[in-house]
Amino acid sequence: MTMQTLSQPTVFSPDANSSRQLRDAFGKFATGVTMITAPSVDGPVAIIANSFSSVSLDPALVLWSVDRGARRFPYFEAADHYAIHVLAAEQHDVCKLAARDAHLLNDHAHTLNADGVPLIDHCLARFECRRVAAHDAGDHVIIVGQVQRTEMRDGQPLTFFAGQFGSVD
Fold first, then answer.
1. HEC sequence for the chain
2. Which of 4, 56, 85, 111 lies 20 to 30 Å from 98, alpha-carbon distance?
3. How many CB atoms neighbour CB 2 within 10 A?
4. Contacts of 158 (CB under 8 A, 6+ apart)
């Protein structure tokens, strides 16, 4: 049997001076990557989020959170309908584009559902939602949606861990 040496943990109490350390600690949790899309007065908008979670099977509810300080916040705060796309590993490029440009869908193939929500293809799963609640949560708002339609396919997920994109091998 081999003994492994673990590095000493960094211990701190979160405060205004340790926000970088707290962000790094949050980054130790590997997540999938989602793109949320919605219609807006300025055309289709998108935002990248890894703060997605299922909530309930009956009724079918999901949640995600958006930073109040994000330039895109007003679009998603106002959206009654939106879609959450669980991105596949091969969608890394569209993810990077969406992270830089809220309006990337103006130049990226998409369709609109019956509620006018922009939908992209080739994601691993897509949840078309109607917002049912929004909860204040510090510098974020947690948005809860009831899933109205779902689509899924097989494939490898785009992942995010310690500030880096990857995939599950």
1. CCCCCCCCCCCCCCCHHHHHHHHHHHCCCCEECEEEEECCCCCCEEEEECCCEEEECCCCEEEEEEECCCCCHHHHHHCCEEEEEECEHHHHHHHHHHHHCCCHHHHCCCEECCCCCEECCCCCEEEEEEEEEEEEECCEEEEEEEEEEEEECCCCEEEEECCEEEECC
2. 56
3. 3
4. 32, 33, 87, 88, 89, 91, 92, 95, 165, 166, 167
pLDDT, tens digit, for every residue of 78-91?
A: 999 999 999 999 99
**Residues 131-156, mean pLDDT to the nearest whole number:** 97
pLDDT score recorded for residue 19: 83
More confident call, 159 vs 162? 159
Q: What is the pTM of this model?
A: 0.90
Instruction: Count the alpha carbons within 13 Å of 3 in the hemisphere toward its beta carbon.
Output: 2
d(CA 148, CA 150): 7
Q: How far apart are CA 46 and CA 97, in angstroms?
A: 10
Cross-strand bridge partners of residue 91:
none
Among all chains, which residue has been given the structure tokens 């807006």? 40
